[in-house]
Structures are given as structure tokens and as C-alpha cells.
Amino acid sequence: MDDVINQVKKNKKFYRTFSMLMALLLNATVFNVFLLPIKLVIGGSNGIATISKYLYHIDPPITIFLISIACVIISFIYLGKKRTLGTILASITYPILVKITQPIALLIPINTEDIFIIIIFAGVLSGIANGIMYKTGYSNGGFPVINQILYEYLKIPIAKSSFVLNGIIIAIGAIFFGTTNAVYAIILLYINSIILDKVLLGVSNNKAFYIITSEEEQITEYIIKNLKHSITVFDVKGGFLDKKRKVILTVVPSRDYYKVTEGIKLLDKDAFFVATDAYQVEGAK
Questions:
Q1: Which of 57, 95, 113, 175 could form a disulfide with 61 if both were Cys (CB 3.0 to 4.6 A apart)?
Q2: Are residues 194 and 211 in the same domain?
Q3: What's the domain range around 77?
Q4: Rounded to whole angstroms, how far apart are CA atoms 209 and 249?
Q5: Same domain, 136 and 69
Q6: Is the pLDDT of residue 105 over 80?
Q7: What span, in angstroms and rounded, lies between the C-alpha atoms of 190 and 204?
Q8: What is the pTM of this model?
């Protein structure tokens, strides 16, 4: 099954890598043009870079690079080489792109008086960038590595740990730059999440898959062992051929949409499956 997950990651590698770089470039531009000039701390390495820039006059790319490298090292220690390799390219590339796009802020001066318009525009652009990033199947490195480690060893849901860590960084930003900036940061993150879901082919945080396949055991093993999601299997009867079949039902986070669809295609190219939005999921372990 490891071969399947590796094949999923290799599919359309050039296109996915190019898309990832474009997403990182867009995020770097949004950071330099919109977020840094108004001292907006939205969490993650960008938030820490903003704080260190105005308090200690440290160039943001340096801060982001140091955080990224530290997270890569921690990932190697706790998550292993295989799971870390996918984060290295983004971890090294992003701070370089932040440095390269710094002059754009001078070429495109932004009127910082109308902050709300800036927040909306930045939220939409960052949502598009993050949506593209998720669709490539790559990880952007940085603090998400910490979230993965907390899930791996303490079983803390990634969404919850991400909310807490980013919340702490935003709170620190509020101490130095005011509570109004923290409120704007929350609004931006909300807009970002809406646009991200739109880009990622859905409006919910989860996708429900209904799968009919002749390779039931392989697909079941792939979802449970490789993607770490639970499944339910139930009997159905076809309306045309009046033939009994089994349906695999699984609900996964939207970020795993690509891995599930491509994995199914690789294991059974004739499989029939339907993916729908899952608006509320409770009780699954």
C-alpha cells in the first residue's frame, strides 16, 4: 500500500510542483504587499516574522527561514525522513520568495487607511493560494509540522492544535499592535477559509465518499492504514442488474480529497465512486 501512496504523490508531479510554487509566490506577495505594511499578525511563521520585524528589526525572510528549518529538523526527528521530504521544498522556497517579492511592496503602494478592503482582498488571495496548495497534495511546511506531531503522539486533532497555536500568535500580536489588528486577523482567516474550501471543490470541511469496487480489500486497507481514516461497509442492490454489491463509505478532511480519489483510481480504474460535502461529522474515531 505504500507503493500506492507514493504513486499518488508522483502523479502529474511537474504540474503539481509548479502549482505549489505559484501558490507560495502568491502567499509571499500577499504577505509583503498587504499584511506586513499594516502589521497584521495572522499566525504561523508569517505572524512571528511580522512581530520580529517591527520589534527587533529582523528581516522577515530570515525569521521565516529559521522557523522553517527548525520545523524540518523536528519533523525528521519525530515524523521520519519519508514524511519530511514533502515539506523540504516549500520550507526552503517560501522564505526565498518572500525576499524576492519584497520590492513589489514598493512598486504597489497600498493605502493603509482603508484596512477593511485590504483584509478582504488579502483574504481572498491567500484563500486561493492555500486552496491551490492543498490540491497539489504538498505540505507548505512550517507550523503545520507541529500540528502533525501533536496528532501523531498525543492524538490532538490537527484543526484544534492549529487553532490554538495560531490563536496564541495572534494574541501576542494583539499585545504589541492592538486588539483591532487581532480582530482584522480573525476576519481575514475566516475569509481565507471560505475561499480555500471553494477552491478545493467544496464548501464543507469534510468529504463523504461512496465507493463501489471490485478491489474492496485493497481500497479498505489503503484508506484505513495509509490515510488513517475509518470506513463503513454496507450492502446495496443495483436497480438495473438487480445485483447485490457492497459500498464503502468513508468521510475524510477536504485536504485528503486528492489522495483518496487518486488512490481509488490507481487501485481500481473501473471503480465507481461519488464524493459529496459532509457538513457535520460526529462520533467517528
A1: 95
A2: no
A3: 2-199
A4: 6
A5: yes
A6: yes
A7: 13
A8: 0.69
